Amino acid sequence: MNFSFLTGNSVYLRGLEKDDLIYLKEWLCDEKVTHYLESGVWPLSIEQLDKQYLNELNNNISFLVILKNQDKPIGWGGLYDINWIKRSAELRFFIGDTKFWNMTSALESFKLLLEYSFKKLNLHKVTAGANVENKNSWKIIERIGFVKEGTIRDTIYRNGKYYDAYFYSILRNEYQKIYDSKSK
Q1: Apex CA 74: angle with CA 30 and CA 68, to 5°?
Q2: Which distant-in-sequence residues (6+ apart) come within 8 Å of 21 by Cβ?
Q3: pLDDT tens track for 138-168
Q4: Number of Cβ within a 10 Å radius of residue 158
Q5: pTM, two decimal places
Q6: d(Cα 129, Cα 146) in Å, to the nearest integer?
Q7: Cα-flanking dihedrals φ and ψ of residue 37, to 5°?
Q8: Which among 88, 86, 91, 38 is positioned nearest to 61, based on CA atoms?
Q9: Which of 14, 17, 67, 176 could serve as a FRET partner for 93 with CA atoms 20 to 30 Å apart?
Q10: Maximal C-alpha separation, the chain
Q11: Domain ranges within the chain, ordered by starting residue
């Protein structure tokens, strides 16, 4: 059943449900999926995932990314550490099903989350980060209009080494300039 909350051409996003945690468990235990993520592979229980992804509703909003034409879960995304006074949030996202690692699904999901952030939640600033070696991630982030604010050195420890991360943000007026001009 399609409980679409945010709908694009090829994907839709819906609220994360307890039954969906099995997908997160599978993806987060996959070394290929988590290779560049800050949190790496470790044996996760559904209870741990429930606490991390479902029980922190006050300042986090999580979505499951569904491929529309197959009604198939392929990833996860959300807005985290939402600060309602500063009107800011951190966008986190990944495509967990490696068969769908293409720019289209990820790009469209990012755009849906940004539209939701600025047009529905009335946020002022959205941030995102990417491991410097995860070229696909930071290319998508830059392509949709985020501005690189800097590099955080040795901030991620994975795969036996430290990684730098790029830190990005996009402001409401920057988003409007890019996306309102495209709709004209």
Answers
A1: 170
A2: 46, 49, 50, 53, 54
A3: 999 999 999 999 999 999 888 888 999 999 9
A4: 17
A5: 0.88
A6: 10
A7: -75, 155
A8: 91
A9: 176
A10: 49
A11: 6-182
